[in-house]
Fold this protein.
Amino acid sequence: MRSRFCAFFLKEYRYLIETHHSDHLDGLNEQALAQDPLPQWLSLDIISSEQDGDTGQVCFQAWYKLENELDAIHETSDFIKQDGRWFYTQGEQKTPILPKRNDKCVCHSGKKFKQCCAK
Ligand SMILES: [Zn+2]
């Protein structure tokens, strides 16, 4: 999961497609992922992860800015293991949880949220 986030960050779309289960791609390809406007990824929080044999579930929240608007993906992702490799199958989108105004900012700048990306 973390490696997939890094791939988004580094725009390694081929890796994202390769780790996305082919039965669940639904027409997604490298070209679609590379389409503008691209989000600027800020941080990733793994909220929980569990593994049960060859299936796994990761709940995460990933912050990004798109055209200077702060937003987040809050998702529970399903993974399955095939031939020793994990593949993303599908995810359930949830409402992003915003930090409190005095909490540390989601971009790890060290500033308070209200003095940083909340603006
Ligand atoms: Zn910030």
